[in-house]
Amino acid sequence: MAKRSNRYNKAAELVDRTKTYGLDEAVNILKKFPAPKFDSTVTLSFALGVDPRKSDQMVRGSVALPHGTGKKVRVVVFATGDAAKAAEAAGADKVGMADLIKEVQGGFTDFDVAIATPDAMAEVRKIARVLGPRGLMPNPKTGTVTDDTAKAIDAVKAGRIDYKIDKNGNVSAAIGKGSFDEAKLVENAQALVDSIVKAKPASAKGNYIKAATVASSMNPGVKLDSSVYTAATA
Question: By its UniProt entry, which CDD domains does this protein fall under (predicted)?
């Protein structure tokens, strides 16, 4: 087992591993952790009772966090004509079509969100093998395939995040920074919980959210009491 730092060990002393916590209490504990030398990212993770191998049990979606993520979101847009001009005016970091696709094929993936117009998708699918594994493939369900590129850019830069279940049945997403106050972190976390609940597949049976944990970079996780989400999934 890797040796933990003194800072991590001091944080771990604040967490009772034998119990779970309400959302307010969990965030309060997280805010008491000794801070690293950078503004840590706070993440909310879920273990879901679905089978991601079945197409009708995939869980994915997007949610607008009330207070954003605290991160500068880098956005590229695959578009031409007026949609491209609108994207540039809205603050996209890079806009293009054939040239941008060629860049991605050459290894350029230094961005957080990719947006495309519907008529661009035929070309964008050529780089699905690059974008897909990184969670960057534009998708209508997350609002990243649209003719209104300016609106989509405004949404992601204002704090909209996308999430998708992994092959082990887990979902994890950033809900803010360690510098956020407790109220903002709690409200962002609740928004994500509500969205995950809403995304429950109709075919999912039994316990949908099996466990949830909130954590910040380089610190131990704090397990959440099931009351945070069971009422909404009943």
Answer: Ribosomal_L1
Tell me the CA distances in angstroms from 34 to 57, 69, 73, 214, 217, one per residue in order: 39, 21, 27, 16, 11
**CA separation for the pair 143, 101 (Å, rounded):** 20
What tens digit of pLDDT does each residue of 101-132 get? 999 999 999 999 999 999 999 999 999 999 99
Q: Evaluate whether 78 touches 124 at the Cβ level (below 8 Å).
A: yes
User: pLDDT per residue over 179-223, tens digit each?
Assistant: 999 999 999 999 999 999 999 999 888 889 999 999 999 999 999
Phi/psi at 96 (5° precision): 180, -175
177's tokens: 């920074």
SS3 12: helix
